[in-house]
Amino acid sequence: MILNRDLEKILNITISMSKEDDYSHLLESILDDGMDISNCDAGTLYLKKDDKLEFFFMVTKSLNVREGGVGKEIELPPVDINSSSVAAMCARTKRIINVEDVYTDTRYNWEGPKKYDDLTGYHTQSVLVLPLLDREKNVLGVMQLINATSFDNVIPFSKDVERIIYSLASLSGILLNNMRLYDDIKELLESFVSAMVKAIESRTPYNAFHTMNVSRISCEFADYINEHKYYEISADDREELKLAAMLHDVGKMIIPNEILNKATRFEGLLDNMLLRYNLIKACINNKYLKNEYTSSQYNNEIIFIDNATAFIKKLDNASFLTDDDKNYIEVLKKKSYDTEFGKLVLLTDEEYKNAIIAKGTLTPEERKEIEKHVVYTAEILNEIKFGNKYQMVKEIASNHHEYLDGSGYPNHLTASELPLLVRMITIVDIYESLISTDRPYKRPMPTPKALSILKEMAKEGKLDERLVEIFSELKGDIK
C-alpha cells in the first residue's frame, strides 16, 4: 500500500509537473520523479522520432552519471523501434515491461544493458519499462527505470510502484502532448505572422526591412531593460512585443499601392507634366514663326518654360520646400498659355496640390490615408483570436503612433492609456524610420541625430522620457 508520505510526494510531483511550461525541463522531471518515486538507481528517457527512439536523458546515481537533458545531447545511436531491444518492444506493444532480473530473463533481448555492464562494471538487475502515450495512444517516448532499491539492496519493482509510475507516465504523456500541441499552435501563429510580414513588405520596395527591424530592435530593447533591471518585462511580455512589432503595419496591406509606394511628389504625374511643357514650347515656337511673338518675347517665354521644367524635375525629389520654392510655385500656378489645343497651364490643381507638400511626398489627403493603416491594423487583428497569452498584441500594434500628450493618432490616447510595451514600440518605430536606408524620399539619418530627435520629442511630452534615455543607452549614446 502507498504510505501517506509517498502519496504526498506523488501529489507534489503532479502539481509541479502540471505547472511546468518548459518542454525540456518537463522531460527531465519525468525521469527524475519516476526514479524518486520508485527509489531506483538508474533510468533512461527515450523520445520517439519517426521510427527511432532517441536518447534524451540518462541517470545512474551510483556512478554519478547524468547525461543529456536540457541543451545537451547523448552521443549514442538511436534505437530502431523495430529492433528486439526492450525499449523498442515497449514502444511497439505500448505495454509495461517489468523484469526482476535481466540475467535470468529469456523473454527479451538484454544485449544493450549487458554491454553497458561490461563497459562500466555496473550490474543491471531489475527493470521497469513504460510507454509515454498521448490521448490518442500514440507513443511519445519510453521511460526505463533500473534497479529499484531497499536498504541498499536491489529489489524488483513492486506492482504498487508499477501502478504509480504508470499513472505518472500517463500524466506525463498528456502534458507532453499538450505542450507539443501548444508548440504546434505557436509555430502556426508565428508562421502566419511571418507570412503576413512578407505580404506587407512585398507590396513596397521602400521599407522592405522595416517590420523585421522594428521587431528585432524591440526585443533588444526589452532584453536591455531586463538586463539592467530598469523595468520587469516577462518572457510573455517580450513575446507579445515581438509579435505586435511584426504585425504593427499589417494594415498597410489595405493602403492603395500608389500611395504606399509614392516615392516622389509628382509620381504618376511627372511624365504628363513634361509632355505638356514640351507641347507649350512647340506652340510658342509656332506662334513665333507666325510673328505672334517678338524675338525678345519668344526668348523670354522659352527661358521661362525651360526654367520651370528644371524646377519641377528638381522639386519632384525635394524632401522639403524653401520659401523661394513656395513663391515660385505660386508663379507657376498662375501661368497659362492660349494655344491651338486650348488653354494649357503649368500646374493643374492636382499637380499644385503635390507641389506645395511642405515635407515628404504625400499630400494631406494621402497622409490621412496612410495614417488609417493603424485603424486597419486594429480591424484585422480584431479578427484573430490571440487568447490570454497574446491579449495585448492588438493594443500594442494598433497604438504605435499614439503619443503621451494626445497628439498622436488615430485615437489621440494619452499617457494614462499607453502602457509600457506601447511606449517602447513607438520609440523603436520612430527610430527605425529615421535611420532606415531603403526610403528613396529621404537619406538615412545618423544614429546620434535620430536619438536627438527622440529626446526632443520626449521633452515635448510625446514620448516617455525615461524610456528614451534607456534606449539611448542601448544605442551607445549615454550623454
What is the approximate shape? elongated
Q: Can you say what the CATH homologous superfamily of the largest domain is?
A: GAF domain
Count of discrete structural domains: 3
**CATH level-two architecture of the largest domain:** 2-Layer Sandwich
SSE string: HHEEEEHEHEEEHHHHHHHEEHHHHHHH
Secondary-structure class: alpha+beta
Q: Tell me what portion of residues adopts beta-strand conformation.
A: 5-15%
CATH class category label of the largest domain? Alpha Beta
Average predicted confidence as pLDDT? 89
Walkthrough of the structure:
The mean pLDDT is 89. 53% of the residues lie in helices and 12% in strands. It has 479 residues and is α+β, with helices and mostly antiparallel strands. A hairpin with a 2-residue loop joins β7 (139-150) and β8. The chain has three domains: 4-181, Beta-Lactamase; 203-258 and 368-474, Hypothetical protein af1432, CATH 1.10.3210.10; 270-360, no CATH class. Strands 1, 2, 3, 4, 5, 6, 7 and 8 form an eight-stranded antiparallel β-sheet that branches. It has a two-stranded antiparallel ribbon with strand order 9-10.
